[in-house]
Description:
Oligomer: single chain
Radius of gyration: 16 Å
Strand order of the largest sheet: 3-2-1-4-5-6
Distance between the termini: 33 Å
Number of helices: 4
Helix content: 25-40%
Shape: globular
Number of domains: 1
CATH superfamily: YqgF/RNase H-like domain
CATH topology: Nucleotidyltransferase, domain 5
Strand content: 15-25%
Amino acid sequence: MTVVAAVDPGRRKCGLAVVCSEEGILFRQIVLREDLVEAARRMLQEYSPVEILVGGSTGSREVVAELQAALDRRVCVVDESHTTERARMRYFQDHPPRGLWRLIPWGLRVPPVPWDDYAAVVMVEDYFNAVSREGSGETRGSPPDSKQEGPGSGPARKMSGRSKG
């Protein structure tokens, strides 16, 4: 059983998620950017993830620096290309439209609430898929190494996902 945390960084708000390889989503939250470090501390204390992933786009440098300084943990920066679009789909898997909203095509549906936490979930799911492919010896489509930030940096996986256009 592997538990991994992820942060979808943004300028004003960040999505947080903790996902277990066997139990699925354990925690999802959207926090204001200024509350990120404290929320991450609580998340780490409660769930003790083996890895912390941070999406490598909007505001990630500052987020990585802050998390490393405050938490004294290594952070793995991952590719979050297209995670926003996939997170929107993931949101509707968990919250299916009702009534007439079911008739709206998938591409036109927009969740009624922010879904940054689902972008973090998608990043962790991509991580688990990449680890699974590596473990099975599958080479086709295996992600290349990602950038490691912090002390003890070693090889890690670069995840593909979707980003906020």
